Every structure is written in C-alpha cells, then in structure tokens.
Aldo/keto reductase
Amino acid sequence: MKYKLLGRSGLKVSELCLGTMGFGTEAGWGATKEQSFEIMEAYANAGGNFLDTANIYKLGTSEKIIGEFMHPRDRDYFVLATKYSLLDNKTNPNASGNNRKNMMRSVEQSLQRLQTDFIDVLYLHIWDNLTPIDEVLRGLDDLVRNGMVNYIAISDTPAWVVAKGNTLAELMGWSQFIALQVEYSLLQRTPERELIPMAQHFGMTLTPWAPLAGGALTGKYLRGDFGRIKEGSNRLNERSQSITKEVVAIAEELGVQASHVALKWTMQQPFQSIPIVGATKLSQLQENLKTIDVTLTPEHMQRLDEVSAIPLGFPGDFFKEEGVRLNNFGGFYDKIEKR
C-alpha cells in the first residue's frame, strides 16, 4: 500500500480508504462484528490505515464496532474519519443539520462510540441549506483547537459553499477543509463540472464514494445479477451498459477484474483521489486490494474517458470551443507586456 498526503496537510493516508457503512446488521444487511473485525484486520495488515464512517451508519453501530476493534490496538496507526449532520435520533429538532449545537452533540457521542479522545478527520456530511457557513467553520475550528478533531473535511456540498468556506477560513485563520467526499465514478462524472476544479484550486483531496457505482462497474448487471437495484436506475441504462462493457473489455485485456479497472481509473486521475471501498465480506476487501497492483495505460485511460464523457455545460464546454481558449488571446497579452 502506498501513502498519500491528505489535501494541504501532512497527514499520511493509504491510497485506498476502507468504507464501513456496512458494519452492522441493522436493516437486514451488513457485516457482523466478527466479520467487520476480520475485514479491518486484513486491511491493516495490507498497510491500510484510512477508515471512513459516520454517526448515522447503522444507527451508530459502525462507529461502535470500529471503537471496539481499535480499543486494544494502536489507535495512532489509524486515520479515522467520521461525519456529522444527518439525523441519528429523534429527541429534538436540533438532532440533525449543520448547526453548532448538533455538531458538538454528534462529535461527543461519536467519541464515546469510537472509544477515542480524538477524531482524525471530521466531515460535514451533507449541506443543509440552513446553517451559515461561518457558524460551521467556527465550530469546526473550535473542535480542532480543543483537540477533539485533527482535520476537517466536507461531503456532498455545492462547490460555491465549499469555496466560500475555505476562503473565509483562510481569511480568519481557521482550519480549512482538506478533503472533499462526493459520488464519483465512470458512471458519475458530473463533479468534474465544478466540484473537482474547485477542490484542485484549494488543494483538497477527493475521496469518491460509490467508485464502483453500487457494483454496476463490476459487470454484474450485464450478467443479470440485479440484486437490490431499483428498476429504471441510471446504472442500468444504455450509457451505463456501454461504459461497463468497455471496463470489462479492458479488464480482460489486462487479466484482472472489472472492479480493478474502474477503481484504478479514479486513482489515476490528474488530481489527488483516494476512493472509498466498502466491504461486508473479507473476500470483497481482498479483491479490491488487488487494485493497487494494477496500472492503466494512457490508451486505457483515454478509452475510458471517451466512453464515459459528459457535457461540462457552461462555461466548461464554452472554454473548450475553438477561438475561446485563453491562449488565443496571446496577441492581446503580448501588447500589454510590451508597454
């Protein structure tokens, strides 16, 4: 396992992040505590140190299982990321949202479930369109200054909100977001319109969730294994099938699994990207870990980029049009430089 710096920080995390949303058997699915322990042990033995969870996952069971696993082990080896925002109880109207009251309550309860004194990376889970961003940033900075949180990050939030937040934090001397978690895969490339360019500008690492598009990019839907997917899902449409067929074709050329190709595509982007790979079975983790030994050629990347390309909309596509490229104004700039 190789390690990367997370955003504009000195925090070293493994190139694959272990997603733990399936730790716990609530709602009739997921990994038992024993299976979860087995998965985390194998991940750590492979050099993995980056765990992703949330207060809402399995109604807190995911955090509890992680806490029980880490308690007798070296806590400092692991980089533990969790989240706040979504409803985790129905006791009061402030038991959800981005507000400071919910933030402090959620973090205190997460620390108890995780059996730790600090959270390495705390994400705002989803933007609520209610709380002022300065309230969020000031609260998160207080958590960092109090030693309860080491770094802050943000998930599922409009690019303009994140940009405003990091700019405000820089101005005020507060902690800035170092990672951005969004859905990103060969089937979901819309973050390339605004979110990813914004993250690049601020030096934030992208941590894609659903990098395999719920398993669609493994090719299982092409084989008729529809599982729990809903009829009419975009992951079953003609475009998704065309993309998946290309993934499968490249996998066959390389002698690897389709999942390895789809994951590696997210890892070989020209920006810092660490995909989150979930597992409820040890075999799933073991299969995903093989991705680190796979390399896609420039030709493979081009084929995948072309088959999955999306319109960037305005102004992205406008900038690409002939005659609008910035270097076409070179003559104008030459005149300015000569003055």
About this structure: The chain has two domains: 3-308, 314-339. The chain has a mean pLDDT of 93. The longest helix spans residues 238-254.
